[in-house]
Amino acid sequence: MEPAKIKAVMPVAGLGTRFLPATKATPKEMLPVVDKPAIQYVVEEAVAAGIRDVLMIIGRNKNAIANHFDSVPELEEKLTAKGDDSKLGRVRKSSDLADVHLLRQGEPKGLGHAVYRAKQHVGDSPFAVMLGDDLIDERDPLLPKMIEVNEQKKAMVVALMEVEPENISLYGCASVEKTDDPDVVKVVDLVEKPAQEDAPSNLAIIGRYLLTPEIFDVLERTEPGKGNEIQLTDALKDVATDDNNVDVYGVIFRGRRYDTGDKLDYIKAIMRLAADREDLGPELRPWFKEFAATL
């Protein structure tokens, strides 16, 4: 399967209640991470992996997302008249990045339901599910490895990351078997947010999935789970534990990941990314040291 034929599905229908009142009228995916909204980083990641067809599953009051990836002729004309080619290029980049499609989720029934809504759009091909809360540093690409494993194994693939055992209760957790590749494991079971003493490993599912169309039949029969929502983890557990023709593998990600779904981690993400930038880092890093010395 060529990456160009793989589509990306990005569920962005969440209410972002942890960031109220900032998200009262602004989608959480549009909150800036330095000078780009979080969702743009995710689209750029998909494009870097060769994926240009992006379906966003949206909820109410998400018009700002659609507007961001659309062209803004009046703004472009003003920047052109000023000769500000740098800003013009940044404005145009978001509208030229990918073919962005929008589909309303309707009644919010969970991540599994949002993914199921993509059935007609993705058709019979494998597709990536990319959650906007997780930003993967562009210097540590993850999707290409997941696409490679999908091609080799003809399987569904989840992204896994080692976390501290006391934090595993915040994630879906994978029970795994080793393979010949130290960064690839076979997933034999999944547990949604287990207590530390009940967790089969410290491998947590993070917000990247490479799924095959078989997931839709499973999601259709998946009953609501935690939070009375249809959980994608529950559907993947059924695939991993059922005796069928589709397996689930995990790619262990050891790179830089930024969680923008939590206020503290969101602030850390901005600081880390800004500190690494050539235009901001040289002045920002010394200031960090000065500021830290005052604490």
TrEMBL record:
<protein>
    <recommendedName>
        <fullName>UTP--glucose-1-phosphate uridylyltransferase</fullName>
        <ecNumber>2.7.7.9</ecNumber>
    </recommendedName>
</protein>
<dbReference type="GO" id="GO:0003983">
    <property type="term" value="F:UTP:glucose-1-phosphate uridylyltransferase activity"/>
</dbReference>
<dbReference type="InterPro" id="IPR005835">
    <property type="entry name" value="NTP_transferase_dom"/>
</dbReference>
<keyword id="KW-0808">Transferase</keyword>
<comment type="similarity">
    <text>Belongs to the UDPGP type 2 family.</text>
</comment>
<dbReference type="InterPro" id="IPR005771">
    <property type="entry name" value="GalU_uridylyltTrfase_bac/arc"/>
</dbReference>
<keyword id="KW-0548">Nucleotidyltransferase</keyword>
<feature type="domain" description="Nucleotidyl transferase">
    <location>
        <begin position="9"/>
        <end position="274"/>
    </location>
</feature>
<dbReference type="Pfam" id="PF00483">
    <property type="entry name" value="NTP_transferase"/>
</dbReference>
<dbReference type="InterPro" id="IPR029044">
    <property type="entry name" value="Nucleotide-diphossugar_trans"/>
</dbReference>
